[in-house]
Amino acid sequence: MSHSPSSAPSGASTLPTGEEVVQNLPWRWNTQGRVFLVGGLGFMFDAWDVTLNGVMIPLLSKEWDLEPGQAAWIGTANLIGMALGAFVWGTIADRIGRRKAFTATLLIFSLFTLAGALTGDIVWFAVFRFIAGFGLGGCIPVDYALVGEFTPRKHRGRVLTAMDGWWPIGAAACGFLSAWLVATWGHWQLPLLAMVLPALLVFFVRLFVPESPLFLIQQGREKEARAVIDDMVHRVGLPPQEYVLPPVPAPKPLTLGSLGEQVAMLWRYSSRITFVAWSLFFTIMLVYYIALQWLPKFLIDAGYEQSRAFITTGGMAAVGLLGVIVAAWLVEHTGRKWLLGVTAIASSFLMAWLAAMLDVPTAVLPLVLAFGFVVQLAIPVLYTYVSELYPTELRGSGFGWASAVSRIAAGVGPLIFVTWMVPAIGLAWSFVVTGCMVVVAVVLMAFMAPETTGKELEVTEA
To answer: Which residues are listed as membrane-spanning (predicted)?
Structure first.
């Protein structure tokens, strides 16, 4: 957002603003890159945890003799917790800061993942997975707000798209490591325990990453904002720069009413943008989460060995890294909307095709890999696009609420999908229905939301 001369002190109207300095710095790995790496590791654990639901569903179905409706709660409890965490932590991050919110999310996740590994009851397991999800659910909105606000404008599309590269790394690591741990030792608790210590490590590393300067500006914390900006200028090798910080409204205290107030602000800012963002997240991520969590069970039911089902799902996630790389290259050339629309629709109907071909072994692996590649073209563009639709004071909560909608869809959707839709119309036609929902969301985006390629990030709504 550009500021009028009246927003700068007298005699300084020609100086750039602090956010303009940040968004026009050159990219350096010792500056913006370290934020990308640490934020990305948090995102990696989010992927690991969601994929872990797909591992736990067949393992605990066998261990505790669960019916499909009961097993669905393994993923549902975790993802509803993530939904709650996404909008709670997104709102908290807009009030207390990206840095503090990020550290708290990983600590809660680590403690309750450990608790889940120590229980022997499906009810308590679901409770602990809910709380762990609540913690980790805040990682994605906080990560994208933090990384986006540190990243120079001309690199932002590629960097935010590349952030999603951490997702297939985490998902693939979960699939491959879980297959090895279970095949070698046979204990269902080991895949849970395998991710606790690395997550705690990221918690401590995160303490050394500074707060977002754009957040500090928006909060009116001028001295802290100048310290971060000046340090960034020094780290990228530029001489000290003069700049102004625009006046901002006094920050509002964080209260219990902040959640309702913040979502109301999103709809007041733009009901069209918010409706489109929620529709895209709901439909695209519903298809992806059903595939990620239930593909191992679908493959096992189709006759695949357990370890092979886990490895195949890991392969689906791993090939997604190539999709992220291609998306990062394409996103600035094609624009966000066109690339997102084409890949979202294509990936949805690839999943329906895969479901129709599960009894043809030679077709399964190519279709699994094709889906994994195309869906990871769509998802990073989705995250980049929605994170750019809102100004700084709403960016964390805007992305967080959209992410929460996707987690609700992914939590409740499989209960309906597995319990009612699949028995009624079959697996393939159930995915056709979800694919049609994606088409509707893409059409809404085409007519109701703006293109954001090259757009300067705003600090306030004004």
So the answer is: 71-89, 101-118, 124-147, 159-182, 188-209, 275-295, 307-331, 338-358, 364-386, 398-421, 427-447
